[in-house]
Specification:
The chain is an alpha/beta fold and about 625 residues long. It contains 21 helices and 25 strands. An 8-stranded antiparallel sheet has the order 3-2-4-1-10-9-11-15, with helices on one face. Strand 13 and strand 14 (about 235) form a beta hairpin. Helix 16 runs parallel beside helix 21 and helix 18 (about 480-495) runs parallel beside helix 21 (about 580-595). The longest helix is centred in the last third of the chain and has 21 residues, at about 410-430. It is globular. The N and C termini lie close together (about 10 Å).
């Protein structure tokens, strides 16, 4: 959600800022802007809509910024105020000498704004960010030190923020700080970068410092100085970034989403490397600090997550309870943090987040940690804020996911839950060794089965084309694939804007069946196993109401041809592993429908990749 890029050094800054913002487009945004330190003063350029609009606006202004080597840039996802030019970042103080970009939400901005207006500040926008510009400018007028002005202002600000600040008096100085929002410093040769995420700078450097909360960094072409809120000097920890620029290429695919769907077999292989060598060997999770004694004292497990990660968590609940016999609760992080939770030192709390920066989930795990719970984090970002809070960690090794709609990160999270649940079962001796061997064998051949699906997509494309013009869509399943139905519906909603809903199939007759007629597609996730016959019966009920029926199945039963208008057949798989196989065609159906409709697949409207505010 939103994106920040900053640069101070010896190169032309505008291209660096624009390229960095382009690499952050996946985070979701509705306006963009840059501020450039020019010879006489700071120039600000902003545009509503896509980044190309900003590029177009900059044409003809090259003589103003051609020699500029310092600047800040931002893509905004509207929170306070509509996506307008006035509300776009960067924001300035009244005199225009100070400029700021900001990710996050300032919780006390109304109080600050009133105080600043009473002091004579004139506000032009509806944003909370403009409050920061005026506040820092007033502090600077008092102390004439930009770093100190940012420090003093941060003492008065409540909420979450990542800030980059420039002042016209400081021609080669960039000041940045953060609290509960990601921000890192890239280190080059006589140059420094600031960014809210790695992709913005990975083309230029693989050395970085991750700022901690309430730290303030002052960057010039030749220096980096970091202090804490009490003005103590901080010795930075320089880390090597894990990604290569090639990860940000579409590699010949039309969209990042299609590329990332096709990467899923290798994602599974990557997460198994070093963790499961052979079916008859134990699972190795080096960063999971759960032993037999700790598991014996667990009363319950709580899994907290948002969006797609919540659906992975629901599958995780099913697996852990099946394999380990421990009661598991799953809850949306946004609900968890606003009620009294029964959590203590006998509770294992699992937080799931692709980015590791999801604000609701981060708050929730901090609340649980304060009550003494053991915190286990499943994330694609082992360098994230959530990972740093963890007592145990499972990095899912999915690589960077550019498309806003999660695909390969979902598969990676599912795999993390399979490994974790089997790992815990081994420790607890809750599954026979022969059964464990069988389950691990199946786990290791999942990539080949996904590759079979990806090699024969024609039938899926046919289904997508047949239903591309529908206004509504229903997905039904039972048992372990109910979360798969929810995930399939979410994917379709996210990128095609078709109203799609997932239901437990047995709930159709308790209300939703009233919606069924000859215009309503119903997709049954009809996988062989304990609930196959029940789900088949539910499908017949829907067919009797003239619904347009689609089956996603690994059954070879020819009788299905009479019941279903379309059948998508997938490789056979044990029921417990069917969520991995079943979700692939659902991702592809959503993708192809959105493509047929001409939607912006990778950057759907109103959505952000990393939701860093509550």
């Amino acid at each position: 959600m939103c994106g920040i890029v900053g640069y101070v050094g010896n190169k032309s800054v505008v291209d660096i800022l624009l390229d960095g913002l382009e690499q952050l487009e996946y985070r979701g945004y509705d306006s963009s802007g840059i501020a450039v330190m020019c010879e006489e003063d700071i120039k600000v350029y902003k545009a509503v809509g896509k980044l190309q609009n900003l590029r177009d606006k900059l044409k003809g202004h090259e003589t103003e910024f051609n020699n500029s080597t310092m600047g800040i840039g931002h893509i905004r996802w509207a929170t306070h105020g509509a996506p307008t030019l006035l509300n776009a970042h960067p924001h300035t103080c009244n005199c225009g000498n100070l400029v700021v970009v900001h990710n996050g939400i300032i919780e006390n901005y109304k109080e600050l704004r009133k105080s600043l207006e009473d002091a004579g500040c004139i506000f032009r926008s509806q944003t909370d960010t403009e409050t920061i510009a005026h506040l820092v400018a007033r502090k600077y007028a008092q102390c004439k030190d930009l770093t100190e002005a940012v420090r003093l202002a941060s003492e008065e600000i409540e909420g979450a923020y990542a800030l980059c600040v420039m002042h016209n008096d400081c021609k080669n100085k960039l000041v940045i700080t953060k609290r509960n929002a990601p921000l890192l410093i890239g280190i080059g040769d006589s140059e420094y970068f600031a960014a809210s995420d790695v992709p913005a700078i990975i083309k230029h450097t693989n050395k970085a410092v991750y700022l901690e909360d309430n730290q303030i960094a002052t960057l010039t072409p030749d220096s980096m100085e970091i202090i804490d809120i009490d003005k103590n000097n901080i010795t930075p920890k320089v880390e090597v970034l894990p990604w290569e620029p090639v990860a940000l290429s579409k590699m010949g695919y039309k969209h990042f989403m299609l590329k990332e769907i096709h990467e899923q077999p290798d994602v599974i292989r990557n997460i198994l490397v070093g963790r499961l060598h052979a079916p008859d060997e134990e699972i190795i999770l080096n960063e999971v600090n759960l032993n037999k004694e700790r598991l014996r004292h667990l009363n319950r497990i709580q899994i907290i997550a948002c969006g797609t990660s919540l659906h992975a968590a629901m599958v995780g609940k099913y697996l852990i309870e099946s394999f380990c016999g421990i009661a598991v609760d799953v809850e949306a992080s946004s609900e968890y943090i606003y009620r009294k939770t029964v959590t203590d030192e006998h509770t294992l709390v699992i937080g799931v987040s692709q980015s590791g920066e999801t604000a609701d989930t981060l708050t929730a795990i901090r609340q649980a940690k304060a009550k003494g719970s053991h915190i286990l984090i499943i994330t694609n970002r082992p360098d994230s804020a959530m990972a740093r809070e963890a007592d145990s960690l499972i990095p899912v090794n999915a690589g960077i996911e550019v498309s806003v709609a999660a695909t390969k990160s979902y598969i990676a999270q599912l795999m993390a839950f399979y490994l974790l649940s089997l790992y815990m079962a081994e420790i607890k001796d809750s599954i026979a060794s022969s059964t464990l061997t069988s389950l691990k064998t199946e786990l290791m051949i999942l990539p080949q089965k996904i590759e079979q699906i990806l090699a024969h997509k024609e039938n899926i494309q046919t289904v997508a084309r047949a239903y591309a013009n529908t206004k509504d869509f229903i997905y039904i399943a039972r048992g372990i694939n109910y979360p798969t139905a929810l995930e399939g519906a979410l994917k379709l909603k996210e990128i095609s804007y078709i109203n799609a809903t997932g239901y437990p199939a047995g709930e159709l007759k308790h209300g939703p069946i009233a919606m069924l007629d000859e215009t309503m597609p119903v997709l049954s996730i009809l996988m062989n196993g304990s609930v196959y016959d029940k789900l088949l019966s539910n499908s017949e009920e829907a067919k009797a109401r003239n619904a347009r029926m689609i089956a996603l199945t690994n059954s070879k039963d020819e009788k299905l041809n009479e019941l279903f208008e379309h059948i998508i057949r997938v490789p056979d798989v044990q029921e417990l592993f069917s969520p991995i196989i079943a979700v692939i065609p659902l991702q592809l159906i959503a993708y192809y429908i959105a493509e047929f409709l001409g939607k912006d697949v990778d950057q759907p409207r109103n959505l952000a990749k990393s939701v860093t505010v509550e």
